[in-house]
Amino acid sequence: MTRAFVAIVPVIDEETAIGDVVRGLHAAGACCVVVVDGGSRDDTQAIATTAGAIVLVESRRGYGRACRSGAQHALQSVAMGHVHDQIAFLDGDGSCDPADLPPLVDALDEADLALGVRERRLVEAGAMAWHARLGNQLVAAILSARSGRRVHDLAPSKALRRATLEQLHLDDDGYGWTTQLVARGLVEPTIRIREVPVGFGQRRGGKSKVSGSWKASLAAGRAMLGVAWRETARRPLLCVMAKAPGAKNAKTRLATSLGADRTARFWEACLADVADGAAEAARSVGAAPVVMLPDRRDAGAVLRIVGSEWTPIVQTRPGLAAALVDVFLAAFDRGADRAVALAGDSPGLPPSRIKDAVAVLDRAANGAVLGPTDDGGYHLVGLRWRPVPRWLPGPHRRLLRRRLERRLRRGFSDRRMGGSSAFDATRRDLVAAGWHVTIVEPWPDVDTVSDLRQLAEVLNRDGLDPRWGSRTREWLARNGSALDDGNR
Known about the structure:
The strands form two sheets. A seven-stranded mixed sheet has the order 3-2-1-4-6-5-7, with helices on both faces. The chain has a seven-stranded mixed sheet with strand order 10-9-8-11-13-12-14, sandwiched between helices. The protein is globular and about 70 Å long. The protein is α/β, with parallel strands linked by helices and 488 residues long. The chain has helices at residues 18-27, 44-51, 63-75, 77-80, 101-106, 130-147, 162-168, 177-187, 214-231, 252-258, 260-285, 299-306, 320-333, 351-363, 394-411, 422-432, 449-459, 470-478, 480-486; strands spanning 5-11, 30-37, 54-57, 86-89, 113-123, 158-161, 193-200, 237-241, 288-293, 311-314, 338-343, 367-372, 378-384, 436-439. The mean pLDDT is 89. The protein contains 19 helices and 14 strands. It is 45% helix and 17% strand. The chain folds into two domains: 5-231, Spore Coat Polysaccharide Biosynthesis Protein SpsA, Chain A, CATH 3.90.550.10; 237-486, Spore Coat Polysaccharide Biosynthesis Protein SpsA, Chain A (Alpha-Beta Complex).
C-alpha cells in the first residue's frame, strides 16, 4: 500500500486542468495537495481550493521558486498539521497523470529520490515538441557523463524523502530547478536514485510557458544546460569529524574536572560553532560539506546540531586513522581531487582559516596542509591528489581508488594518532607517502580546564570575528565558576 505523501503543484493560468489534477492526486493517495500559484489571472486558485488543495500565492515568478515555496510549506509540520516524509512534484497542466505518483512514492522504500521517465510508448502523440525532447535528452546526457551515474529523463513527475529534500538545499528559482535536483542527487553517492516509467500527455488547456514559445524554450534550455554543467563540476570536500554529544563521548580529563554532562554540553557548543564556520567556508569556496561519524546511530543527534546541509557519512573501520582515510576516499568517490578534514572540537575556528587551507591545496597539485594544536596534535588536515573523471570506466576508477587508499594508509597510522607526537608523525608519514606538506597557523585543542581558559583568551582576542564561536563563548560565560573550581 502506498504511503501518504504531499504533492506540490506549480501553476499559472491552469483553470482547465487544475481541478482534475487535485482530485486525481487525492485519489492517488496524497494526504495534502499544495498548489503554488505564480500569478494566475483566471480562476485557477478558486478551482484548486474547491477541489481540496491548499493554495499558496507566490508573487516571485519562476518554476523553481514555486517548487521551493511549496516544498518549504510542506516541510513545516506546524503549518500542515502533521509531518510529511514523502514529497512529490508534478505539473498542474494535466500532462502528468496523478496515478503515476504512487509507484514513484513506493520506490522510496529502497531509494531516496524517485524520478519519472517518460518512455516513448507512454508519451501521447504531440505531447512533447521535438526541440523539448532533444533539449531534455541533451541535459540528461550531460548529467550522466559528468556524474558517472545514468539518468534518462528530467520529467516533471518526481518524489523524494523529506531528509533528501532538506539535504539537497535546492536554490534555483527558474527552469533549472529540476536539473539542479537531479544533478545534486547524482553527484552525492549516498543518495539512492531510482527511475520509474511514467506517462506524459498533451496539456489539457492553457498555454505552455516554455515549449509554446521558441524564445522561452531557448531561455529554459540555456538555464538547464548551465545548471547541469555547474552542478556536476568537481568540488572539494570539507569534512567535520564529529561524535554525538554524550557521556560516552566526553573528553575524559575534562569530564573528570567538570562532569560528563557539562562536558557534553561544551562538546555540543563546539560542534555547532565548528559547523557554522565550516559551512560558511564551504559556501565561499564551493565545497561539499560532509560530517564523518564513528557510528550511524550518531547521525540524528549530530545533524540536529550541525544542520541538514551537512551530509553524514560513517567510517567503515574503527579509529581516527581509518576515519581520515575514509574522508579522502569519500571525496574521491564524489569526483573531488582534494579535501579538508576538521576536528569537531576546534571551537571558534574562523572560516578564513579553513579557506586558507583550501587555498594551499589549490596552489599545490600534490599538496597537503596540516594545522597544529598546542599539545602536539592537529586540528586540520587537507590533501590533494591527481583528479579522476567520474566518467572513467568502473574498473579503472576502482584501481585508482585502491592506489589512493594504500597511499592514505601510509599517511595515517593508528599507532601515531594520539599523544604529543601526532602532528610530527603525521607530517613525516604524509611526506613519505608523496605529499608536500604546508603548515598553517595553530588553533587550541581542549582536553583540560587549563585548555579552556586558554581558549577563552583566544576567543576574546581583538580582531577575531565575534560571529564565530558564539555558542562556545556563551558556554564559557555560563561556566566560569566551574572553570575556577576545576583549576584549583
